Amino acid sequence: MRQFQKFKNKIITKTLFNLYLYYSIEYSCSKSSNEYDNTAETDSIDSESFFSDDDPYEMQALKCIISDDYVQGISVFDKALKIDSKNVFALEWRGKLHHMLNNYDQALADLDKALEINPNNSSALLFRSAVHYDLENYKQALVDLNEALEIDPENVSALEYRGAVHYMLDNNSQALIDLNKALEINPSSAFALKYRGVVHYLLNNYKQAQEDLDMALKIDPEDTSAIACRGAANLSYCNMYQDLYSYNQVLKIDPENVPALICRGNVYQMLGNNDRALLDINKALEIDQDNVSALGIRSIVYRNLEKYEQALTDLNKTLEVDPENASSLENRGRVYQKLSNYNDALADLNKSIEIEPECQFALAFRGDLHRTLGNYKESLTDLEKCLKIDPDNSFALAVRGDVNRELGNYEMALSDLNKSLKIDPEGGLALQARGIVHIHLKEYELALADLNTVLKIYQKDDAPIFAIRGEVYKLLNDYDQAKADLDRALKIDPDNIFALITRSQVYELLNNNNQAKADLNKILEINPDHVSALLDRAFINGKLQDYERVLVDTNRILKINKQNKLALLIRGDAHRRLGNYDLARSDFSDALNIDPRDNKLDDFILAHRGIVFSILKDYENALIDLNRAMKINPKIALWHNKNNELYQLLRETLITLIRTDPQEPSALTLRGFLYVMLGYYENALIEIKKALKGNPHYSYALEIQDELCELRKTQGVNATRFKVFEPIYAAFKASADSHRSLSVSTTSFKPCLSECVKKENRFEYCKPCLDRLNKVTLEAALKFAGKKGLCSQCERIITNPNWCSLCDYDRLKNDFSNWTSGNQEIDEFIRELQEHVEDYQGDVIEWIPYARFENVENIGKGGFSQVSKADWLDGKITKWNNNIGQWERLGKMCVALKIIKNSKDEIKEFLNEAKGYLECRNTIVERNVIRIYGFSQDPSTNNYIIVMQYIEGGNLRNFLSKKKDFDMKEKLSILSNIAHGLVTMHCFTSLVHGDFHPGNIFVDKDNNIFIADLGLCRCASNDFDFKPKHAYVVEYTAPEVLHGGINTMESDIYSFGMIMFEIVTGVMPFANYKYSHDELRKSICQGARPKIPVNIPIAFTILMEKCWDNDPRKRPHAGMIDYWFKDTQKAIELYSMSLMERAEHENKNKSETFNLNGFEKISDYIAENFLFCNVNPVKGNPSPSPST
User: Fold this and answer.
1) Is the pLDDT higher at 249 or at 757?
2) Nearest to 64 by CA among 79, 44, 84
């Protein structure tokens, strides 16, 4: 009988098809014996002459054969052979009957003797070949069949059986030749058709295989082996349910058909229905308890169910029967790996590969085992061999991807993992590994998506996955969700070290140091030498000022590895705090001597040693160390924020030096250098000049003086104190088409110093920095996303407690047929918006029948639209009420109806205006853009209406005309809100307004600002000629646009400068201009600007002039303006405090970066700290005139 492992790696399923063939051979043999009977009788015996009255024994034997009484048949032939021992016919048939009874030796003895008497007896040759076939002597069977065909080349049975033997010897091409010839002679041979179908299958000719097997079943519909073979062939099309149908057919005919039970069980196993698989396999083993293949498949089922001991029992039994069974060895190796018995696993996989060196599956699993053992070189070797055999082996690709991840080859890892998941989208290992790669690449949202998919697919409590997802949430600053995942991981596996150390970090970030220490203590109970846990605990003890315990932990680390640089730094700092300055200096020196090629942490170590030198009054060495630290990292003190520990430490050192007031040049130079590190350059210059007065040739002082003078020259000299130019950094939100900028604090992100290029007041970022900036946006986004929860219906994670995008969209979709605008384009637009309801702050954009409005009152009219005020009787949708099965609404509410003229004929223009508003609404931080609730249609004109939020206070022009007495603080607040609205458009949605003036800015009763009239909005990345159809408001329009150019973000900034002028001065730009608009347009293009009163603070003058600079490239972007206003508001708030309040404020809020240093006028403070400090304002700009 054919061994499974001989052709296992030729087919897709590894087991199913061959299992059936393995057993169908036995079934075919018993059937073929009858065929041999008939064939032999037909080919070599004349029945008329045989059945004569003179041969009673032969007639008796034939009756026994027909009645299946083979034992009685043999006794009849025994009697015949006693009479004539050379009776060839009796010898042939007695041999055949012995064969039927599995008496192979007696069968061969009889057939050999028959062929000695008559060597050309083709019937005896066929019978003997069948015996050799059952004994797996395929080559000997082939010899007999070749001889039979030499005697009779057209012998159909010999051709059929030789084809079957060639098939068993893997000579599929030769098998096909014989079977084709047999079918040419006898096209209705079900046996030949069945075997040819099998051979076609193995040659990947799936269509021909199906055709042959279908034809065989037409001839013999009850042939269970053909039915099962056709089911196996269906696997080439991955149609397992068709396979089940085929095997069910077999088992209806023969409920105890062992091959069909095994094959059906295997299909259930592959479909993940392990319980049904066990039922079939157990039944097969009840019938045939030593069936190797059934035991092998049951072991796989047990392995799937994580019943590894039972799987091992089955596999041991199969290997007792067949110690060289490569498949069983491979499976046992995998079970041993699951049991962490890696040595036995490796031994089994090695032996399996020795038997079948080209088995891709064994190679892949051994590669995985080597990965687990950390033998990455050996793992990659096995995986390369496997993928050379089958480049699309998804498991091998996943393992290789994970190995490359471990080796830090993230791009290579991603390539393999993406390919693996394209082949098998639900591959758990690939998803998990790719998630971890995304973490390393700081693509946290992508990591989260992969890990969520793993948990969704496998739906089981997997401690490592929850621990990794907890790490991602930690990196996203979502500490509540991180803790929830880590708690869950530790509930499943209380000793999961990764989960414990990550949770300790979360506790530390939440300032829950005791809980953090508890987790670290547990790790160290499990593994007392866990270096990361020891380091973390030492760091926490340092925060708790328990420096003796810091020394205990760091001593232990350095006993494990005396080359641990971070441990030496922490221990040195603990010694410094305990007053052990010599020990501290020694630790810092030892750390610096570890591998000079690796300067990681050297800037901090040098700075700390410099501080120790300064405490020891060794100012020369302190200066050397601090200078070296600055060369490694020029902004070491300011790199993170002014609340970081090193900044505070340097500040304390400076204060100590000032209090002790040493006047020698080295001390003064050190003091000056500390001022430089802290960013106070004017103070630094004073100290350096003092040092040079004491020693005019002091080299360090001269070097610092030169640098400071050069810096002062480039930064300007008008301010009483100057600082390094620090641009406002932008974060970029990745969208489908482009990065979109988001203004964030300077403390959130710093670009690289080598690739990013500073131009004017902004940076051109390199790609790695853009990628990092995306993460800043993500962190900001998550803070605004609202409290997360689960939908009560589908249990899906939602960010809006009132909306589930999955359930609520289905409800809205079900209602599509109940409304229409009468225009297909508008209907599709609304439906698309409803599909993404969560993107619009939970506002359902809907079609609102005009009859649902009351008290419609016209409140304004423009060239292209009319605005009315109305009561909407229903009000907007708030949420779905599960109890009553319908939407809850806000109820009667006041709305604005913007009726777009000619919109019935210009649908695209109407939708463009709506899209402008909605693009701005589609941000998670937007608060300054008017909301849209839906669309309607004016029945009198058929023009379409945008139903919008009604702002009771009116537009900014009206607001300014009514309120004449508001102070600078209120003006700052309004300007800050307008700037923030502009940030929403420019930075979050990349939109240009194009018509920005006070008439399009609304102020509500609480002084909140809303930007309106977004009909001219367009994406900044679009290069088409963006020119509106109506006339500009000239006073607020940038010169390049008046000159025929397109609107840009820079032209919006120009408009903002004019709006700022009007708010600050209370006068419209060019209010006193007495000439025509055409003349004003010409004057603006020639450089005319409004006159700024001299009493306006210089900082405001600078900002306005920068905004309306004639060169658009020199205008600041919205993020910079927004940041400046917020910075100024904080400064004013701090300035308004008393000295005592200010001191208390600084103690309570050490992160505060403002220090007024006794300035008497807030305008002086603003000017000094104003970031656009390289501008030389021209005060008293004259009113424009035609000649200007």
Assistant:
1) 249
2) 79
**Residues 37-50: tens digit of each pLDDT:** 443 333 433 333 33
Q: Report the sign of the C-alpha dihedral through residues 103, 104, 106, 111, in that order.
A: positive
How far is C-alpha 116 from the geometric centre of its chain's CA atoms?
Answer: 76
Domain 956-1169 fold is Transferase(Phosphotransferase); domain 1 (1.10.510)
Residue 792's pLDDT band (cuts 50, 70, 90): low
pLDDT band, very low/low/confident/very high, at 486 (cuts 50, 70, 90): very high
How far apart CA 1077 and CA 192 sit, in angstroms, is 97
Asked whether the beta carbons of 228 and 241 are under 8 A apart, the reply is: no
Paired residues of 880 in beta bridges: 887
Instruction: Give the residue from 1158, 1162, 1149 showing the smallest Cα distance to 642.
Output: 1149
What's the predicted TM-score (pTM) here? Answer: 0.46
DSSP output for 996-1019 = -SGGGEEE-TT--EEE--GGG-EE
Q: Residues 789-949: name the CATH superfamily.
A: Phosphorylase Kinase; domain 1 (3.30.200.20)
Query: Residue 906: helix, strand or coil by DSSP?
Result: coil
Q: Whole-angstrom Cα distance, residue 1188 to residue 1183?
A: 9
Region(s) of the chain under CATH 1.10.510.10? 956-1169
Q: Which residue has the higher pLDDT, 1069 or 1158?
A: 1069
Architecture of domain 256-349: Alpha Horseshoe (1.25)
| 45 vs 38: CA distance, rounded Å | 10
Residues of the chain with CATH 1.25.40.10: 256-349, 358-458
What is the structure's pLDDT at 379? 94
Pick from 508-512, 652-656, 760-764: least confident = 760-764
Question: What sign does the CA torsion over 209, 210, 213, 216 have?
Answer: negative
- pLDDT tens digits for 995-1043? 888 888 888 877 788 887 765 455 544 443 444 444 578 999 999 999 8
828, with CB counted inside 10 A (0-12, 13-18, 19+), is exposed
Is-contact 867 856, C-beta < 8 A? no
Amino acid present at 196: R
358-458 classified as CATH 3.50.50.60? no
Residue 949, beta-bridge partner list? 895
Which residues 6+ apart lie within 8 Å of 749 measured at CB?
Answer: 729, 731, 772, 773, 776
Q: From residue 766, how far is each of 750, 753, 763 by CA, in Å?
A: 12, 10, 9
In order of 194, 401, 728, 762, 1105, the CA distances from 1116 in angstroms are: 80, 45, 10, 8, 10
Cα distance between residue 979 and residue 974, in whole Å: 9
The mean pLDDT of the chain is: 76
Looking at the chain, the domain(s) classified CATH 3.30.200.20 span: 789-949
